[in-house]
Design brief:
heterodimer, A: about 290 residues, alpha+beta, Uridine Diphospho-n-acetylenolpyruvylglucosamine Reductase, domain 3, Enolase-like, domain 1, 2 domains, five-stranded antiparallel sheet, 10 helices, about 30% helix, globular, B: about 750 residues, Aldehyde Oxidoreductase, domain 4, Aldehyde Oxidoreductase, domain 3, six-stranded mixed sheet, 17 helices, 31 strands
Chain lengths: ~290, ~750
């Protein structure tokens, strides 16, 4: 197995172009476990840990840019205000040791239906920056997931980073696992409200071959109490049912399809209610860059 | 004696030697383990050592129609590929009955059964070559339903001598004739729990110059390993020398052989040292698990809550081979009604062989499964009678003088009613939790209190300590008292396996107390000394502790004889002989004193094969739990809020180690209650990894307040009572009961999965 360790992103793209079969590695928390478990080793490992420009994030008036090398720990400690949904999801990933190493881009590269950050990326309308020696393109998150552990990247492309629109309302994330920490999702839900547009986006995980949005639930946005007040029980039920209807779960060792459908519905109801409750905190939801709070 | 009689050094009573029994001195291996420097068996290394690997059956049941090793053998770096034809001696092994092939012979009976072994220069080459061995199978339908394996005469036989390994009845009074005011019937299931130790099966076999082999191995019982290995290798036992390597957890899973014979075969065949170390998935396939159980109970009681009768039919699935199933059946039968006085009893316990993964020893050993069921029944009875769970247990609790189901009289303290009152009177934790991470779902952020209900439940368990039913599980200890650099130094040698429980610390403590010497060295455990018996059945404090104590007493008598006394006291490096005090170092001089003692517990007898009667147990231990849980009833998620225990240990030998045992046992019981299960479908293991075989994390384990009682057992060394297993029994039913209290559901199976709560059947 070849091992290459470029120090600039340009060099990394050149290496990837020269070795399309090379597998990029950052935290290695998924890849190395697989290798140790006897999965066939890739012909080459492309170590991106020395590419300093990936280990950074930035914010402007429109969006937050998160470099491919940013770890879950940094999502929690540095981006909790700007990207609360992402931070909530990051908190549920593995153990502290894993969160110290593992990265958002790694979650995308693996593209597991159970990856913890995917529902949030779907709910927040993230964009994946795919780069190659041919240039850079933006892949809307809705187009990123191509199948079980498959994604839309071309063989010569690397993830440079992820762009999230500046949040325009409360975000929530919840995940069911069969123990209280260090567990793979049985199901997960993320909701993100856009207060100005009065829209809601919903992403779900571990309930279909890929992470996906629950579009029929999003269509219920107009019935939500945007101007305050309690969430109507019937609306909440319809919302949960619409999320459950968007899923195509399976039975596996972690849970039954019936349980997944049921629990994703419960989580959808609850996370929506929590997000709406956060509206009452009367913050200015327009253009929350977080700069003033930093 | 070449030394002169030592002169008196004064008459003031010297200070007691620190670090004796009752204290909690640091573990001798503690610093190494905490700093990551301790050498576990998987760390063993020799430059010239080959690496051995195992080819395993992918099928639960199949005939082997051909094995072609030519391609694997042709791989550069491969030194040997061996099959059952290469086993030098007896091609079978087993703890109770040698029915398990060293390597499969014409047939495989479970997924993961070893078929061939291979040694190569490095792990990568070895694993690559292993994939080139071509085995052709004629796949057969597996026998996977233990009840059918026992009761359905039309089902295939897994072995020619049938599918029932042992049927043990217990008959007391006339259970089939008496009637009761109130009757509760319940069917229960216990899933297949795994010991889930962290250190994989591993070791290093080195060919010896005399044609024998030296094996450095993580095991629970060196001598019983050696006997089995020697028979399989066709070597005299003295040519098979075993030394204990660092053990990364055991919990019963290292009582059976795993890679021992394989590594020795490869070493003897190649003439080179061979190391083996399973990976995690292989480990899950390569050791025995706890027997899954199906249990049907019927309890009859009077209107005022006194038990009239208990009837039970219990099937334990032992999987493909016998392992320790007969003894597990004996425990389930003899302890099947729990620590309650029952006038009429009819129990039938069956140990089955199937094509499921082999099951054998695990902490609690047959007493765990029945405890979950009989405690569930006691709760059902309490509900039927309108009594509290504590009250029904107190009304039926055993005490000293009570009879077990076997007719054996409990002849040491058994203060169960007092223990129940104590646990029930403990303050309850606050009704709400402090942070959202402490709610069901933990960091998953699944609730802010929605759907959360509180429940409280109780569990009581009784466990036999030491081997039962006539087994002479003696322990040997050698204690040598010498003077080094002017100071007395004691060296202790036993073959007892330190598996993490702290026996090494306890041996030092006993010597300090008995001989008043602070410097106590421990020789590596090996087979150059007699057997210490197994590090299982909560027995090593009693047995090897007893042997070390007895050897110290023999050494002390020798010191007394040297000084012309019949007895002396040894305290703080001094000898108290009558009115005089002399330095121990002077009394020993340059003639070390060494004594080897074999220690035996009182004899027991097998259970009667028809009635189950007989004094089959050495000692009995009780533990009581109260569990407080929060359940998110909408999501089926559980958070144990508190798990309080009351345990009688006879005598506290080392409080820190003891609390660790009770906490650990309670946590393992929590795992069985809520998450730990090897999932087997059609004989195939679905979750052989720590990704999907979940054990409790620190966020799953609650505060566990302990009340430790000391009612000495007059028959035991220091009055101590084995303590490692009892908490594993009672914590499971206590948690199950608390979840029932929170949900109102019957919950007839552990582990309780979320869907059992959200979608009850």
């Amino acid at each position: 197995m070849e091992f290459v360790r470029p120090t600039t992103f340009a060099d990394a793209l050149a290496e990837k172009a020269a070795r399309p079969q090379a597998v990029p590695i950052l935290g290695g928390t998924d890849l190395m476990v697989g290798l140790n478990a006897g999965h066939p080793p890739p012909p080459a490992l492309l170590d991106l840990t020395a590419v300093a420009e990936l280990d950074a994030w930035a914010v402007d008036d429109d969006e937050v840019w998160i470099g491919a090398g940013v770890t879950y720990r940094r999502l929690i400690t540095e981006l909790g205000t700007l990207c609360p949904g992402l931070a909530l999801a990051a908190r549920t990933v593995g153990s502290p040791q894993i969160r110290n190493r593992a990265t958002l881009a790694g979650n995308l590269g693996t593209a597991s239906p159970g990856g913890d950050t995917h529902p949030v990326l779907l709910a927040t309308g993230a964009v994946v920056e795919a780069a190659s020696v041919r240039g850079q393109r933006a892949i809307p998150i809705d187009d990123f997931y191509a199948g079980v552990k498959r994604h839309a990247l071309a063989p010569d492309e690397l993830i440079r980073g992820v762009r999230l629109p500046i949040r325009r309302g409360p975000q929530q994330f919840a995940k069911v696992g069969t123990r209280n920490a260090m567990v793979i999702a049985v199901c997960s839900v993320a909701v993100a409200l856009d207060v100005a547009r009065r829209t809601v986006r919903v992403g779900v995980g571990s309930v279909a071959p890929t992470p996906r949005r629950a579009l029929a639930a999003e269509d219920l946005a107009s019935g939500l109490p945007w101007d305050g007040g309690p969430l109507d029980d019937d609306v909440a039920r319809r919302f949960g049912a619409a999320v459950a209807a968007a899923t195509a779960p399976i039975d596996d060792v972690r849970g039954t399809a019936a349980y997944r459908r049921h629990s994703v519905e419960v989580l959808a109801r609850r996370t929506l209610a929590w997000a709406l409750a956060d509206l009452d905190r009367s913050e200015a939801w327009d253009g929350m860059t977080g700069r003033s709070e930093a | 004696m070449t030394t002169q009689a030592p002169s008196p050094v004064g008459s003031a009573t010297p200070a007691r030697t620190p670090g004796g029994i009752g204290e909690s001195p640091a573990r001798p291996d503690g610093t190494l383990k905490v700093t990551g420097q301790f050498a576990y068996s998987s760390d063993l290394w020799l430059d010239e050592a080959l690496f051995g690997v195992t080819l395993r059956s992918p099928h639960a049941r199949a005939c082997i129609t051909g094995i072609d090793i030519a391609k694997a053998l042709a791989v550069p770096g491969v030194h040997a590929v061996l099959t059952h034809e290469d086993v030098p001696g007896l091609p079978y092994y087993g703890l109770d009955h040698p029915d398990q092939p060293v390597l499969a012979i014409d047939e495989v009976r479970y997924q993961g059964e070893p078929v061939a072994i291979l040694a190569a220069t490095d792990p990568h080459t070895a694993r690559r070559a292993l994939s080139l061995i071509e085995v052709t199978y004629d796949v057969l339908p597996p026998v996977t339903d233990a009840r059918r394996a026992v009761f359905d005469p039309s089902i295939d036989r897994v072995h020619p001598d049938g599918n029932v390994v042992r049927h043990q009845p217990v008959r007391v009074g006339s259970a089939d004739e008496v009637t009761a005011d109130v009757v509760v019937v319940g069917e229960y299931e216990v899933g297949m729990q795994d010991q889930a130790f962290l250190g994989p099966e591993s070791g290093l076999a080195v060919p010896a110059e005399n044609g024998g082999v030296d094996l450095y191995i993580a095991t629970q019982w060196l001598h019983v390993d050696r006997g089995q290995i020697a028979r399989c290798l066709d070597l005299p036992e003295e040519k098979v020398r075993l030394t204990l390597a660092g053990v990364g957890g055991a919990f019963g899973a290292r009582e059976d052989l795993s890679m021992q014979v394989h590594a020795c075969m490869l070493a003897l065949h190649t003439g080179k040292p061979v190391r083996m170390s399973y990976d995690r998935a292989e480990s899950f396939l390569g050791h025995v698990h706890r027997h899954p159980a199906w249990l049907r109970y019927e309890h009859g009681a009077t209107r005022d809550g006194k038990l009239v009768y208990v009837k039970a039919t219990i099937v334990l699935d032992g999987g493909a081979y016998t392992s320790t199933t007969p003894a597990v059946v004996g425990n389930a039968a003899s302890l099947g009604v729990g620590p309650y006085e029952v006038p009429h009893i009819a129990i039938d316990v069956y140990g089955a062989r199937t094509n499921n993964p082999p099951c054998g020893a695990m902490r609690g050993f047959g007493a765990v499964q029945v405890c979950y069921a009989y405690e569930s029944q006691m709760d059902a009875l309490a509900a039927e009678l309108g009594l509290s769970p504590v009250e029904i247990r107190i009304r039926n609790a055993v005490s000293q003088g009570s009879k077990l189901a076997t007719g054996q009289v409990i002849d040491s303290p058994a203060p169960l009613a007092d223990m129940l009152r104590r646990v029930a009177s403990l303050p309850l934790p606050p009704s709400t939790v402090d942070s959202s991470g402490d709610l069901p779902g933990g960091y998953g952020n699944t609730t802010r209190g929605e759907g959360v209900r509180r429940g409280v439940g109780y569990g009581v368990g009784i466990k036999n300590i030491c081997f039962s039913e006539g087994f002479d599980d003696y322990a040997t200890a050698r204690v040598r008292l010498a003077v080094v650099g002017g100071e007395p130094v004691v060296t202790v040698h036993t073959a007892a396996a330190e598996v993490g429980q702290g026996l090494v610390t306890l041996q030092q403590q006993i010597v300090r107390t008995e001989l008043g010497v602070s410097t106590v060295l421990l020789q590596p455990a090996d087979t150059t000394i007699g057997s210490a018996g197994s590090s299982s059945a909560s027995r090593q404090s009693y047995m090897t502790g007893g042997a070390v104590k007895a050897a110290c007493e023999a050494v002390r008598t020798r010191v007394a004889q040297r000084l012309g006394h019949s007895t002396v006291e040894l305290v703080g490096g001094k000898v108290l002989a009558g009115d005089t005090i002399v330095d121990l170092a002077a009394a020993v001089g340059d003639e070390p004193i060494e004594e080897t003692v074999v220690f035996r517990h009182r004899p027991t007898v097998p259970m009667d094969p028809v009635t189950g009667q007989g004094d089959s147990h050495v000692q009995l231990a009780l533990c009581v739990h109260r569990a407080v849980v929060d359940v998110d009833v909408e999501l089926g998620l559980v958070k144990v809020v508190e798990l309080a225990a009351v345990q009688d240990v006879g005598r506290v030998m080392n409080r820190v180690a003891l609390e660790g045992q009770i906490h650990g046992g309670s946590a393992q019981g929590l795992g069985l209650a809520l998450m730990e299960e090897i999932q087997v479908v059609d004989g195939l293991v679905r979750n052989p990894s720590f990704t999907d075989y979940l054990i409790p994390t620190i966020l799953d384990v609650p505060p566990m307040p302990l009340t430790i009682l000391e009612h000495p057992d007059p028959h035991a060394p220091y009055g101590l009572r084995g303590a490692g297993e009892p908490p594993t029994l009672s914590s499971t039913p206590a948690i199950a009961a608390a979840v029932r209290a929170a949900t109102g559901l019957r919950l007839r199976r552990v582990p309780i999965r979320p869907e059992h709560i959200t979608h009850p059947t």
